[in-house]
Write a structure and sequence with these properties.
Blueprint: E1 8-11, H1 20-37, H2 44-57, H3 68-84, H4 90-106, H5 112-121, E2 126-131, H6 135-145, E3 153-156, H7 167-177, E4 184-188, H8 191-200, E5 205-209, E6 225-227, H9 233-247
Parallel strand pairs: 1-2, 1-4, 2-3, 4-5, 5-6
Helix pairs in contact: 1-4, 2-3, 3-4
Organism: Pongo abelii
GO biological process, one term: CMP-N-acetylneuraminate biosynthetic process
Pfam family, one: Hydrolase
Length: about 250
């Protein structure tokens, strides 16, 4: 790590600042209720939602040849057909998808303590939101949780040539804020994108948010720091700056 103070912090969005996984689970529960009450599915409702969750986790999205709405409606259509058999039911798939999506967005909120932390941090350093994913999906989340005003800049991977962990997107962020990679800290919950990307770009430090106490694989990227909550960040940044002061 260089001998300059931290001048900028890059934050991941999903499962770092907002509980995307929890919001998604709530969306799935609403779909299960719909399928059971309106369409009289029994255990098939949960099986369908489990199948969709697997499809989402394996999703490969290419923005130039796919619309995210079509792609995700197809996940539901396939899951229903795989579970129930018979002809494809696009209309039911659309109903499930839009209920899941709208419920998920309703539950994507910035907690009050996270808002307060961002507000305080921004008095000391520049803040940038750096999120991978499809442009439409990520912009809808940013709007739903009303987080844009807490940041000096927002960068969505799906709008760029490359996403995290490519160094190019980190250099783009540095240029936006007028800082050097050695001035910046990356904070996120995903070792393969947030942490690997920060390491690839030569940032001052990477901070892994490990809420569930996961033991990483030996082959995983190694973060400079690990915390269980993003709310531990201000104290950590102070300690990083203290090390700089002691070194100089």
């Amino acid at each position: 790590m260089g001998l300059s103070r931290v001048r900028a912090v890059f934050f991941d969005l999903d499962n770092t600042l907002i509980d995307t996984a929890g919001a998604s689970r709530r969306g799935m529960l609403e779909v299960i209720k719909l399928l059971q009450s309106k369409y009289h599915y029994k255990e098939e409702a949960e099986i369908i939602c489990d199948k969709v969750q697997v499809k989402l986790s394996k999703e490969c999205f290419h923005p130039y040849n796919t619309c995210i709405t079509d792609l995700r409606t197809s996940h539901w259509e396939e899951a229903i057909q795989e579970t129930k058999g018979g002809a494809a039911n696009r209309k039911l798939a659309e109903e499930c998808y839009f209920l899941w999506k709208s419920t998920r967005l309703q539950h994507m909120t910035l907690a009050e303590d996270v808002k307060a932390m961002l507000t305080e941090l921004r008095k000391e350093v520049r803040l940038l939101l750096l999120t991978n994913g499809d442009r439409q999906t990520q912009r809808e989340k940013i709007e739903a949780c009303a987080c844009q005003s807490y940041f000096d800049a927002v960068v969505v991977g799906g709008e760029q040539r490359e996403e995290k962990p490519a160094p190019s997107i980190f250099y783009y962020c540095c240029n936006l804020l007028g800082v050097q990679p050695g001035d910046c800290v990356m904070v996120g919950d995903t070792l393969e994108t947030d942490i690997q990307g920060g390491l690839n770009a030569g940032l001052k430090a990477t901070v892994w948010i490990n809420k569930n106490g996961i033991v990483p694989l030996k082959s995983s990227p190694v973060p400079h720091y690990m915390v269980s909550s993003v709310l531990e960040l201000p104290a950590l940044l102070q300690s990083i700056d203290r090390k700089v002061n002691m070194s100089t």
